[in-house]
């Protein structure tokens, strides 16, 4: 008997408590499971013989449990992978599970010590790697990297991957997460609208300002951002900091060096966003709008640019007008002396996969990932999801979508890959950038305020000895 | 014989008590236990750390801010909801025109009752979708488009509503606490009132209908006006119901989780810049979006603090509004 608006929150609290309860109930059987583990051999109970084609020694009769995230990439590629595994090990039965909330569904199983053999640890609810690694619950994937690749045992798995995969999956110096999809990020625009107005994509800030005024004269906002989801605008400012200050500026930030957020690169990047807001180039009210509304504004020709990942076309497919031709541009020069040259593009591996240490069929889990990184599986992933996998050359020659083609082209022409690590490592710091960058783009802040607010958060993270520190290089 | 009855009752009570113990009491105890450890939520290995989590909690800027927001909600939301519900209930049951014999509500009261109660049947997800449209911060929003059509708001300067973190009154700082009412929080309170009035209107209506009509008729014969009838007759007789409503609404005000998460900017809600963060939303964002390895335990400490505050509030409110003498009718 409470007020309606609040009863679902009761539910939420109940869900929370239920999770705790479930975790507690699972604890007792877990003890015996742990005891059982201790008496088995160190290889996690493998029975198969280690050969070139079976480097982890997967037992043919060993069942395998794989859990996939059911999101933008859909279920089809997972089913394809499972079918391939069952073909290779006809005696094993693969239990394939899908979840939209990985954290809620699999946190109790980590706690209980009976996790699945392969887990697609993906958003929006991801199991944070830090605490799980702290508890020794994830398998070091170095053995996978060093194993022979699925197609050619002479070539190691690590040599079939695009740059950055190992670094992105590394925590405390070891690789625990295999990120399978390679996303390209940048500012998306409608090529058709640009062609119609005789506009060209800006390569410098001056060109952008000229374009912005021309668009404003036509009643079009030059820029918009996914307002209430601050993750997007935080990417814009981080990209811009890298663009202006180069890798060394980002390293200072990633490594929590004193006054890293007071560098000139940060100042320039923040000033640019503040300038866009103060000159009225940003879509009115964008700070209060959601991602679909603002992305639609670009599709409808109400705004020119929006920052997003290469999934944009797939996400907006239902409301994408046939006349619109989406394309992506790398960040334009922001000052006369940008350290990263024009063409540097933000690209990063995402969509993580982990193999828990307490997996009953750990060898099978590793073998499943090795197989996913094979040419055939990777190509099918690109076909089915219209996204690039982290396997080199897997999508070569595929022409399935104009946005994917544009993204591949930008990636191929990239002079430098923009990426940073602080967001995944230090949530409170990322949250501070979320809030401060949104304020900037909403026209409620200044570069100085931005730098002060974020530096304060960075100092607090640096001081907090309960946050495990990482080292970027 | 009495032994048989006890066994009979125990038999019936066994299942619910067992369920209650397993799904309510045990998790409560667990939460309290975890709050004094460095439990990560993932690994069954953790250590006892004493009350460190609580000490940190009351030094945590965002938590104190969230607590301040809860206090603002607590002072505004129950009072306004109860006053509106009482007023409407009175008008619908007793407030009809005095030109005819008998006591009745205003014309069309059953229609009003339905309209007022309607928000109650909507799920929170629908409420959030509807009100996000109403408060949308561009010309597609209901309020903004109306104001723009009237020329009160410029098209390129829409009102931000849920994305506005400015306080409607200058913030008041007392020690570590800052009391402020950001626009976004005011919007949420309005929605909560809209959603809550209907339920309490029905509650108070039922209570008013149980008051014998002769009492109202006697008051009318004595020449009492509607206002006098309300304050001298209706309100004192509804004392217990108002008290119960007060406790329910107080608990709801200390919670407020669903509206914050469903409607406000930021990951897990609470934005912009923590302007709409309440204790429960901050707890959830700590429990499952951690960066510290012991953030689950920290969130448990928050949960325990919220529970203690809620219990204290309920006790105080029940005591303050306790009826001294009861009228039998």
From TrEMBL, chain A:
PROSITE patterns: TAT (PS51318). The keyword Signal applies. Residues 1-35 form the signal peptide. Keywords: Signal, Transport. Its main location: other. It holds the Pfam family SBP_bac_8. Belongs to the bacterial solute-binding protein 1 family. This is Carbohydrate ABC transporter, N-acetylglucosamine/diacetylchitobiose-binding protein.
UniProtKB/TrEMBL annotation, chain B:
Keywords: Cell membrane, Membrane, Transmembrane, Transmembrane helix, Transport. It is found in: Cell membrane. One of its GO terms (cellular component) is plasma membrane. Its main location: membrane. Pfam families: BPD_transp_1. PROSITE patterns: ABC_TM1. InterPro entries: ABC_transporter_permease, MetI-like, MetI-like_sf. Residues 67-317 form the ABC transmembrane type-1 domain. The chain crosses the membrane at residues 12-29, 71-90, 111-131, 183-203, 242-263, 296-316. Gene3D superfamilies: MetI-like. One of its GO terms (biological process) is transmembrane transport. It is a multi-pass membrane protein. Belongs to the binding-protein-dependent transport system permease family. This is Sugar ABC transporter permease. It comes from Catellatospora bangladeshensis.
